[in-house]
Amino acid sequence: MPSLPQLLDEDVRVIDRALQDFLEKSRASAVLIAAEGGFLIFQQGDTTQFDPTTISALAANAFSANQAIASLLDEAGFATVYQQGVRRSILIGQINLHHTLICIFPASTSVGAVKYFAAFTVQTVAAQLAKAKERAPEHGFDLAMLNMADGTQLFRKQSD
User: Fold this and answer.
1) Domains of the chain and CATH, by start
2) 3-class secondary structure for 37-68?
3) How far lies 146's CA from each of 23, 78, 122, 151, 154, in Å?
4) Above 80 in pLDDT, residue 151?
5) pLDDT digits (tens, 9 = 90+) for 39-64
6) For residues 52 and 33, is the Cβ–Cβ distance under 8 A?
7) Which residues are CB-contacts of 6 (< 8 A; sequence separation ≥ 6)?
8) 156: Cβ contacts below 8 Å, ≥ 6 apart
9) Which of 26, 63, 66, 125 could anchor a disulfide with 92, C-beta 3.0 to 4.6 Å?
């Protein structure tokens, strides 16, 4: 079953706007959205200091590993995973069963503020992804099965 719904211009605009709003309010440096398997599908902010594709893959899979740990501890799951660094910190949270929000922010920024604003962003993004899935449930993508050398399966010109 495809985990990434077919996204239209409206979906991209709503999600991009939510990510921009999050960056402004939280003072995070960058925010990424990863699909199942860690595939980077959205990014906003300053990503010049790191490789967003690699961070996306590692962070999404680290979050999945933490969900497995939660299960071993008889927990339903962890809503977020937080790693504090000397210069930068990262907060990883679940959007839905197939998507993860990854926030990179200065270590001097309050994780509480980042978590607070991330919660609103997660709600907005989750609602838009659900709307996209409801619009065309049969037209989604399993990114692990895509031919990355040929993006024509994923990107098509919108008909007028």
Assistant:
1) 4-135 (3.30.450.30)
2) HHCEEEEEECCCCCCHHHHHHHHHHHHHHHHH
3) 30, 30, 26, 8, 8
4) no
5) 999 999 999 999 999 999 999 999 99
6) no
7) 132, 135, 136, 139, 140, 141
8) none
9) 63
